[in-house]
Write a structure and sequence with these properties.
Elements (H helix, E strand, L loop, with lengths): L2 E5 L6 H14 L5 E5 L1 H10 L7 H5 L10 H7 L5 H7 L11 H6 L3 E8 L5 E4 L10 H6 L9 E3 L2 E5 L8 H6 L4 E5 L11 H10 L4 H26 L3 E4 L14 H14 L2 H13 L1
Parallel strand pairs: 1-2, 1-7, 2-3, 7-8
Antiparallel strand pairs: 3-4, 3-6, 5-6
Helix pairs in contact: 1-2, 1-11, 9-10
């Protein structure tokens, strides 16, 4: 039986999923495939590398630094989030919190980071072959939130956040041969996404990236459809949805240490549900 885990991201709400992955590392739970969208791609990469608590300060400490996010970045770099600071300065081998690239590559767990071609609006799935020591451009591309960030270039092609192209990449996990998948959401399971904020963002990039702008307008529908499909799979026993009952006051760019800590702890606790799910499936498989 091949198992997969999908992290849909959600900016700083990703601290919830960081808690989920840290529980997996503590419990010795390994998946055959990990798929990450936006911040989810960073969570998955640290998990595959076996680095417990590595992601935690990326949510609870570093965002409070002016180099990470802020109006100064927006004024001088035209990007509220400095993706180079996050995924190079901090994450490179000589950085403050390096990704264990060698362990990441040696792990048998397959990896996909979802990004969206800024010109065509198509989802692109980067695997481990696109990751190089101290060149984590695919994580930057997957996390490039429209308007908050410039699109990020990988091999000369510009990409936006993966959520535009494939908001809930559950089908991709099944395409890659998974029999059972754990889906990690950072909003409550029954949350219905609205497109009101998306319209404002779409207008900001409409002139330069019209197709990507249209993807933003459709993101809420795509997310809601994806979660509805996940619930159908869950009813069939093929998917387990791990989702918070509330977000502890955390949103995409919320900077509240106490709230972020509580949300991380909630993710860690909620992850225990996958023990019985995986055990049941293992029993059935045997």
């Amino acid at each position: 039986m091949k198992t997969g885990i999908v992290d849909v991201g959600g900016g700083l709400r990703g601290v919830y999923a960081a808690g989920v992955f840290d529980y997996c590392l503590d419990a010795g739970i390994r998946f055959d495939l990990g798929i990450g969208v936006s911040a989810g791609s960073a969570n998955v990469s640290s998990y595959i590398a076996g680095q417990k608590k590595r992601n935690y300060p990326f949510y609870t400490d570093y965002p409070f630094r002016k180099e990470y996010m802020g109006l100064k970045n927006f004024l001088f770099k035209k990007s509220y989030l400095d993706l180079d600071y996050i995924y190079s300065t901090l994450s490179n081998s000589d950085g403050e919190n390096p990704l264990d690239y060698q362990s990441f590559m040696k792990s048998s767990t397959e990896f996909l980071a979802v990004a969206t071609n800024a010109e065509t609006g198509e989802a692109v799935y980067f695997d481990k072959t696109a990751m190089r020591q101290d060149d984590y451009s695919v994580l930057k591309a997957s996390s490039a939130i429209p308007f908050v960030c410039h699109p990020y270039a990988v091999d000369g092609v510009l990409y936006y956040d993966g959520a535009l192209g494939d908001t809930v990449p559950l089908e991709k996990a099944f395409e890659w041969g998974c029999d059972k998948v754990v889906l990690v959401l950072t909003k409550p399971k029954d949350f219905c996404r609205s497109s009101s904020k998306d319209e404002k963002i779409a207008k900001r990039i409409q002139k330069k990236y019209p197709i990507a702008a249209e993807r933003i307008r459709n993101r809420a529908k795509q997310y809601n459809r994806g979660v509805a499909l996940a619930k159908e799979y869950e009813a069939d026993g093929r998917v387990l949805i791990i989702a918070p009952d509330d977000t502890c006051g955390v949103d995409t760019l919320t900077k509240d240490r106490d709230a972020l800590k509580r949300f991380y702890e909630k993710g860690y606790r909620d992850a225990k549900a996958m023990e019985s799910f995986l055990r049941e499936q293992s029993g059935q498989d045997g």
